[in-house]
Amino acid sequence: MIISKNALLAMLSLPLVALPSLALAKNIVIAKNGHPNLSIWVTLYHADRADLVRTIHDSGCVPAGTTRTFTINTTDHTSNAYLRSELKLNADCRGTTLHDTTVNSGAKDPLIATDTFTLLPQNSYPQTYWAAGNQNVGTVSIANLPAPVVTRIFSRAGTNGKVLVLGIDPGNTACLRTPTPGQCRAILREENASEYGQYWERYALDGGYVFKNMANDQLLAVAPGNGNPIVLQKSTVTNMYAYRWTIGGNCASNCALRPIQDGGQNLNVFGGGPYDAGRAVGTWGWDGGGINETWTLSPAP
After folding, report:
1. CB neighbour list of residue 14: distance below 8 Å, 6 or more residues apart
2. What beta strand segments (E) does the chain contain?
C-alpha cells in the first residue's frame, strides 16, 4: 500500500501518547561510623522478593569518624533491599570482622519511595544496627562501667626462685606516660612492688576483662593470629571492647588468658625455658597448660 504525502503528514501531526514511566524506588543509606579506630565495610544488595537473585548495588569502606552515603535504585516493586555492615578491627576495612549484620529494609510498594537508613554504633559494642531516618551519631560510650580492680599478672614460668610478672619496660621511651599507640610492648619483668608498670587496672566488661596499665593508661592488646606480640593500645571505649580477655581456669593457681576476638589463642611467654625477665610475651595456640602459657592473677577474679 502506498501512503500519500498528505496522509503521512497527517499521521505525524497526531499527539504523542505518553508511555508508562518506570518510577524509581530508592534506598538512601547513611553510614556514620561512630567507632574510633575501627572501620565499617558497607554492602547494599538488591534481591527479588524470593531472594533467588541477590546483586550488589553499592559498597565501600567507612573509616572511623566519617560518614558515607550509599544508594540502591530499583524499578521493581517486588524487590528487597538488604543493608549489610561489617565492623573491622583495623582502620582500612581489611582487619578482622568483629561484627557482621545484615537487615532487609523491605520491598518498595508503592513503587515510588525514598527511605533513609543510618548505621548507628551500639553502646554494647561491637554490635551496630540500622535505624530508619537520618540519625545523629554520638561517640560510643559505656554505661555503668564497673570500678577497676588493681591487679598483677604473675607468670608461672619463673625459674631459680625468681618471680616474674607481666609489665612494661620503664626504660623504654615508647612506654612512657604519653606513648605512641602500638609501640609499647608488654614483657616479663622481675617482680618489683614499686614498679608501677607491673600493675594493671582490671575491668569486668561484657563477658570479658580489660587490663589497663597503670603506668601509661594503655590497654593490654594483641592482633588476632598465632605468634603476635602484646602491643599496648590507646584506652578508648571501642578499644576496651575490642581488646577484652576471657579466662579459662582458676586464676588463684593457674589460668589461661585469651583474647576475646580470637579464643583459640592464649597469653604466652615466647620461646623455651629457662625463662627470665625481658622475655617477649604474645599469644599462641594452646599446648596443654605449660608454665609459659598459664598465669595467676592477684587478686583473682
Report:
1. none
2. 25-32, 39-48, 54-62, 67-74, 79-88, 97-104, 113-121, 128-132, 149-155, 164-167, 187-190, 200-205, 208-213, 218-219, 233-234, 245-250, 254-259, 265-269, 281-285, 295-298
Domain holding 90: CATH number?
2.60.40
> Which strand (E) or helix (H) includes residue 212?
strand 208-213
Inter-CA distances, 21 with 47, 75, 112, Å:
22, 10, 11
Distance in angstroms (rounded) separating the CA atoms of residues 259 and 224: 8
The set of cell numbers assigned to 113 is 519511595
Cβ count within 10 A of residue 252: 12
Q: What total number of domains does the chain contain?
A: 2
As a whole number of angstroms, the distance between CA 288 and CA 295 comes to 13
Question: Containing domain of residue 282, as a range?
Answer: 149-298
Which three cell numbers, joined as nine digits, stand for 141?
560510650
Helices (H), 194-285: 237-242
pLDDT at 16 over 60: no
Whether residue 170 is preceded by a cis peptide bond, meaning omega within 30 degrees of 0, is no
**pTM of the shown model:** 0.70
- Non-local CB neighbours of 167 within 8 Å, separated by 6+ positions: 186, 187, 188, 189, 195, 197, 198, 199, 213
Indicate which CATH number applies to the domain containing 220.
2.80.10.50
Rounded Cα distance between 14 and 12, Å, is: 6
User: 132, 160, 177 — which closes off a domain?
Assistant: 132
The pLDDT tens digits for 152-176 are 999 999 877 789 999 999 888 888 8
The reported pLDDT for the residue numbered 18 is: 42
**Predicted local distance difference test score (pLDDT) of residue 9:** 43
Is residue 80 domain-shared with residue 184, that is, in the same domain?
no
Domain boundary among 132, 165, 189: 132
Task: Compute the residue count for the chain.
Answer: 301
Domain membership flag for residue 17: no
Indicate whether 290 and 167 sit together in one domain: yes
Pairing outcome for strands 25-32 and 113-121? parallel
